[in-house]
Amino acid sequence: MTGFFGDIPKLTYQPDGDSEFAFRHYNPDEIVMGKRLEDHLRFAVAYWHSFAWEGGDPFGGRTFDRPWFGSEMEKAKLKADVAFEMFDLLNVPFFCFHDADVRPEGTSFAETTRNLEEIVDYFGQKMEGSQTRLLWGTANLFTHRRFMSGAATNPDPEVFAWSAATVKTCMDATHRLGGANYVLWGGREGYETLLNTDLKREAEQAGAFLSMVVDYKHKIGFPGTILIEPKPQEPSKHQYDYDVATVYGFLKRFGLENEVKLNIEQGHAILAGHSFEHELALAASLGLLGSIDMNRNDYQSGWDTDQFPDSVPEVARAYYEVLKAGGFTTGGTNFDSKLRRQSLDPEDLILGHAGAMDVCARGLKAAAKLLEDGTLETLRAERYAGWDRPESKALLTSDLASIEARVRDEGINPEPRSGRQERLENLWNRYV
């Protein structure tokens, strides 16, 4: 034991207890819609925000003082020790990481790869004595200055090559650790100005890069899912993976829509001008819903603040779409969330996750009750019931001239019908 978390006890489900260090609503063994709650939610801790982030923001530097901060392999292993202690305290089934979160940067690609392989071996040892598995791995292709103009879309072919090689090592690491997914997040795959940007060339580079990733997945027999995480902006002015619809168009363009799914983040959806549930529902309708990052933004700040979820109604809307789509398969609920830079104590790290897990549990259970009740889906179906008639279905395969003749001959003169939004909102609020 590292002693970092002191005497904090392992958290258990205590709905009527007094301890801060307990779950009030998250009972992993509770059966919801025929499945354990843990298996519905599939919680994951984000290695980067929990253990690698130093507490900085655009106007100020590091506020956290962690004993594992540094570039030595011994500190990387201490970080892993602390991480797995936290996984055990929270009893989370999964974690996620970028390569740069877990290993020191070397002076060459070869040295950096050796560092990653060493820490992956160490992770493997830690996982032998842990219930926590890897939800997904990914490569950090945005922090180092070499990626200032992107990775796959970089105008420099050597950066493209470095990035492809890095992704290969990270896919190998994810596969070795039994990861359920591999994620690509284009943190700087975008542009600041069209004055120095060739959009067509950069899109073709991105398509070629992703095709290589898919080919390598099959070559090594990786059974997990390849995921793309959409984001509209920040740090780039305009990123190519703007939202679900944009990524779907990209996948169709390069014939990859049956090979790749999406990891959708609540905060990114908001930055794109959408609701989280919109992005989830659209992804599900396109067969692309894979996994989620459950973190919110401060709606007054206008940027990606990565805060733990604290709104049961918001979370319930998201899980309603997930459940309606059949639930997660390889995906799960990753807390891509970080403490506030004034929350310095080890206890804060535990309580931030515990509170978020309770909020998600409450939200999913409320969504499940509404879905099981069936009233909302019945009322939705009634709104479109006219399309179930044979003559209505025929409209979709008819032609304009025939339809015009029918409208004229039958004297069709439709009147508007209420969308009943307020009634449905009242129904929703009876469950949440």
Can you describe this structure?
- The chain is of the alpha/beta class.
- The chain has 2 domains: 343 residues, Divalent-metal-dependent TIM barrel enzymes (TIM Barrel, Alpha-Beta Barrel); 54 residues, no CATH class.
- Helix content is 46%, strand content 10%.
- The protein has 16 helices and 12 strands.
- Strands 3-4-5-6-8-10-11-12 form an 8-stranded parallel barrel, surrounded by 5 helices. The chain has a two-stranded antiparallel ribbon with strand order 1-2.
- Its EC number is 5.3.1.5.
What's the name of the CATH homologous superfamily of the largest domain?
Answer: Divalent-metal-dependent TIM barrel enzymes
- Here the CATH topology of the largest domain equals TIM Barrel
Under the CATH scheme, the architecture of the largest domain is Alpha-Beta Barrel
Q: Largest sheet, described in full?
A: 8 strands, parallel, barrel
Shape: globular
The structural domain count equals 2
Helix percentage range: 40-55%
- In the CATH hierarchy, what is the class of the largest domain? Alpha Beta
The N- and C-terminal alpha carbons lie at a distance of: 41 Å
Note poorly predicted spans. none
Strand order of the largest sheet: 3-4-5-6-8-10-11-12
Number of helices: 16
* Number of distinct beta strands: 12
Radius of gyration: 24 Å
Can you give keywords for this protein?
432 residues; TIM Barrel; 2 domains; eight-stranded parallel barrel; 16 helices; 12 strands; 46% helix
